[in-house]
């Protein structure tokens, strides 16, 4: 009953959904040249080969998926890969880093007609789904068309499990679209089994196995020359409320470390101008990377790195990285700490990391990251790390060693996934 109601409501929602997309377009949240992909209208020709479709929801999933995409295209050079995502930033990241056999499109909204148009055009031979949100119209359509689908890197929060258990028939129907579900943890596996999923296995979190973020060496050299020996720290993937914390901390720390440089990397680079306006103060010199003179000068206090795809550059530059959306005013949830840990950073985070609780728990067990309790504790931890090279070195080593010990998880996932990749039709579809 719930799924039929959902199908009916979405089926008559083309006008409000189109208005929503146009509103997002006006806000700069959609690509002006490609926004109609979200209505199932393609912007490129389907290749004349077997096609594997991988969906990665946003930047985090997209980054994790890249190493898997590269492995699949290496094993099956005769196939192409359609890679979809939902956000503008993830599309920009993927478009610049996908291998030759792969290409990006936006995932349509879950409108039955748009879903039908998408599947009629692309008719994939295999679907790999890397998103916690399970869109009913899409998944039921895959089941109706007998297209094999796998749910990868699956997780299920306690709250989501409780919600799904209120509609067990709907949960069973949606999950039955997947031939195989590969989970991050044994707890996730138990949750999916509790909802009636059949072939469920635990292979670990693919985020542990993602390749280190890329960088351009000449840009790193230029930044090192500009910064010289100044002490610095990075607040990465920040959300609203965290930039103000960084400003207050900088003002306080500067009394002890006069040459301190604070680098803020907003999760959404288009917020750079607003962040600069919000932080503007008489005794603090703020500079944005997108300004014409984009290297920090000797008197720059706060450097806003409002560019896309340069996180790997700044993680290589700094010894200290604080991971954003763990002290933000939206309730937090946390972002991926592995990317910083791989690149020799001391990793710090606030208390609100519920979206990646298992990763942070494992890192704490290995003494590979530090938690900030509140803003005062934040100051104490940063001040000690800036003053104590040995402590920095210890946590850098612990974080790197922790990452090195997790690389087997991609192999576990690949062992379960490979038979489906090899079985994908070799004939032109």
Low-pLDDT stretches are: none
- The 3D shape can be described as globular
Whole-number radius of gyration? 23 Å
Summing up helix and strand content along with how strands pair, one would put the structural category as alpha/beta
Can you summarize the main beta sheet? 7 strands, parallel
> What's the number of structural domains?
2
- Biggest sheet strand order reads 3-2-1-4-5-6-7
- Continuous helix count: 18
Mean pLDDT: 93
Describe the structure in your own words.
This protein is α/β, with parallel strands linked by helices and 429 residues long. It has 2 domains: 224 residues, 3-Layer(aba) Sandwich (Rossmann fold); 188 residues, Rossmann fold (3-Layer(aba) Sandwich). It is 45% helix and 15% strand. It has a 7-stranded parallel beta sheet, sandwiched between helices. Helix 3 packs parallel to helix 4, helix 10 packs across helix 13 and helix 11 packs across helix 16. The protein is globular, with a radius of gyration of 23 Å. 41% of the residues are buried. The mean pLDDT is 93.
Index terms:
alpha/beta, globular, seven-stranded parallel β-sheet, 429 residues, 18 helices, Rossmann fold, 45% helix
What is this structure's SSE topology?
Blueprint: H1 2-11, H2 14-26, E1 51-56, H3 59-75, E2 80-85, H4 88-97, E3 102-106, H5 112-122, E4 126-130, H6 136-144, E5 149-154, H7 158-165, H8 168-175, E6 180-183, H9 186-194, E7 200-202, H10 217-227, E8 232-238, H11 242-253, E9 261-266, H12 272-279, E10 286-288, E11 302-304, H13 311-317, E12 320-323, H14 338-342, E13 346-349, H15 357-365, E14 370-371, H16 375-387, H17 389-404, H18 408-423
Parallel strand pairs: 1-2, 1-4, 2-3, 4-5, 5-6, 6-7, 8-9, 8-12, 9-11, 10-11, 12-13, 13-14
Helix pairs in contact: 3-4, 5-6, 10-13, 11-16
């Amino acid at each position: 009953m719930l799924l039929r109601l959902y199908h009916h409501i979405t089926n008559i929602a083309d006008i409000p959904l189109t208005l929503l997309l146009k509103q997002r377009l006006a806000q700069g949240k959609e690509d002006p040249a490609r926004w109609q992909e979200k209505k199932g209208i393609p912007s490129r020709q389907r290749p004349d080969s077997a096609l594997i479709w991988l969906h990665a929801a946003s930047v985090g999933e997209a980054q994790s998926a890249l190493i898997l995409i590269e492995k699949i295209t290496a094993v099956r050079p005769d196939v192409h890969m359609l890679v979809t995502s939902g956000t503008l930033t993830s599309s920009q990241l993927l478009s610049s880093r996908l291998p030759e056999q792969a290409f990006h499109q936006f995932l349509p909204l879950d409108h039955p007609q748009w879903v039908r148009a998408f599947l009629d055009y692309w008719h994939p031979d295999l679907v790999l789904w890397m998103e916690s949100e399970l869109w009913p119209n899409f998944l039921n359509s895959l089941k109706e068309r007998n297209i094999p689908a796998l749910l990868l890197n699956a997780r299920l929060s306690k709250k989501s499990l409780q919600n799904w258990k209120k509609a067990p028939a709907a949960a069973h129907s949606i999950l039955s679209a997947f031939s195989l579900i590969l989970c991050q943890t044994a707890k996730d596996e138990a949750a999916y089994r509790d909802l009636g999923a059949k072939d469920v296995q635990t292979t670990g979190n693919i985020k542990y196995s993602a390749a280190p973020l890329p960088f351009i060496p000449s840009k790193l050299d230029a930044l090192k020359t500009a910064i010289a020996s100044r002490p610095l720290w990075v607040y990465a993937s920040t959300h609203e409320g965290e930039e103000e914390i960084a400003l207050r901390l900088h003002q306080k720390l500067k009394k002890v470390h006069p040459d301190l440089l604070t680098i803020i990397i907003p999760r959404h680079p288009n917020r750079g101008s607003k962040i600069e306006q919000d932080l503007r103060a008489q005794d603090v010199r703020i500079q944005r990377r997108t300004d014409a003179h984009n290297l920090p000068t000797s008197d720059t206090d706060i450097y806003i790195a409002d560019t896309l795809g340069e996180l790997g550059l700044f993680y290589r530059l700094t010894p200290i990285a604080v991971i954003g959306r763990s002290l933000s005013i939206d309730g937090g949830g946390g972002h991926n700490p592995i990317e910083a840990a791989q690149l020799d950073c001391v990793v710090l985070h606030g208390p609100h990391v519920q979206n990646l609780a298992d990763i942070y728990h494992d890192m704490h067990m290995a003494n590979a990251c530090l938690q900030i309790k509140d803003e005062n504790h934040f100051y104490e931890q940063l001040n000690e790390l800036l003053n104590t090279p040995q402590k920095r070195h210890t946590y850098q080593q612990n974080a790197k060693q922790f990452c090195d010990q997790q690389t087997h998880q991609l192999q576990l996932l690949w062992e379960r996934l490979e038979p489906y990749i090899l079985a994908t039709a070799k004939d032109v579809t």
